[in-house]
## 1
Amino acid sequence: MGRLFVLRRSRTTVEAVVTCSHAKAMMIGVDGFSRWSGALGLCALIAMVRPSAADPRAVVELFTSQGCSSCPPADRIIGELARDPSIIALSMPIDYWDYLGWKDTLADSRFSARQKAYSQMRGDRDVYTPQVIVNGQTHLVGSNRVGIDGAIKSTDQIPGTMTVPVRMAVNGKEIKVSVAAAPPGERVAQGEVWICSVSKAVPIAIARGENRGREVVYHNVVRNLLKVGDWNGAAGSWSVPLENIAHDGIDAAAVYVQDGNRDRPGAMLGAAFTSLH
């Protein structure tokens, strides 16, 4: 149908090298989300200056659907953005268009809930596909590449946005996640640390619905979300078992630190992305 769907119901920085002693941690389920809960021990922080270009400047989330004929152009744009090392582009397929004739094979109701939470925080209740959220703050149509580039530049100027260095690395059978302290002079934020299991490229042959007969490649598809822990402005470090992240079809991981919480998501404070193979 080629239409836009809308639901209305409803910089030089400081790098931190952190070493921590950990107590035992365990995986628990919280309201349909997997949660990685670990105790932090005493942390030692060593700072050194490095170029800001080493850190990503934006997290771009696309809420998309295989059942939406307006989405393929936005899906292609996410593929283009995914090739830019300064941008962490993520596809989060939603499930509320499944009734249109094709059940989205990548959809997750948690992404629909996340999109709705963003709209409630903004107060506009605008929930549609393809919708892009840039750095947790600005939303726009996902096929508007010029608008996305502009939103990346404008949100990059907002104090506190993407200023916290985040590091992630595979170490044996674990993924090490380190989040630095809030930069000097910035308010101490309260946020959460999440890790995403990612499939870099997933081709889907769509047999029914508005995109019948098309094959669409979805890029940086989030396949699972795990809460790593809470962040209060101080440096922290966690270890996540690789077996909780890497399953069949998973070849990358993304970590983001976001102001607020799952139900009230705010600005992106920092993020990292790494390949697993």
## 2
Amino acid sequence: MSTIAVVGAGKIGESLLSGLLHGGRGADELLFTERHPERSAELTARYGVAGVEVAEAAKRADVLVIAVKPQDIEPVLDELAPLVGPDTLVVSLCAGLPTSLYERRLAAGVPVVRVMPNTPMVVGEAMSAISAGSHATAEHLALVTELLSCVGQVIEVPETQQDAVTALSGSGPAYFFYLVEAMIDAGILLGLPRAVSEKLIIQSAVGAGKMLAETGEHPVILREAVTSPAGTTINAIRELEKHGVRAALLAAIEAARDRSEELGKAHE
């Protein structure tokens, strides 16, 4: 069995630890690093997993999952560089950072797999896209797929598509939360109590998502099924189109893609 160390136990890192434990990994197979002692003690008490320094994680782990913020990667790589060799699989969960960065900064031949997860990992419903670096094999990808399947679904994409994935599914939950927030406010504007508006919209979002996932129908077909001639929904759709909501979403996702590219170029 592999020893897996999560470097950076923030929300995503903690969610992965929890998912791996629920997926059958033993606490003795897992490690994590955390800069704040109070947070480290809290996670150890909650999960029974040992918190260690980055250097110890690098020495003991067969798989190193890097889950720090992109702007914090440089000092982490400085620590890992003299300690990580080709026998260690490095899995990067850092938005925008290419596998070439790790391959350039770490020892020759280190296998790297780039992952773009998203925050529904917290509830076991993540969408994670994975890409192999120059030295990562099919076996490495299979291992990463197995690990991430504990916290959601996994898809393999060419690394050239990772910035687009980051913009679409990596940031995607925020777009849905933004729309739900606006719809709840609309309910209040129409005279509904906040609690009622929240209940109506959140369950509608859950139900709509389940229909998309389980029916296999195209979103257009599902939308048209709600859109009666001269009815309420078509009037609402007309206003959305009039205000350029579709175009705004396209522009927003392009802007997120551009920022992901900038994050990678900052480390060239």
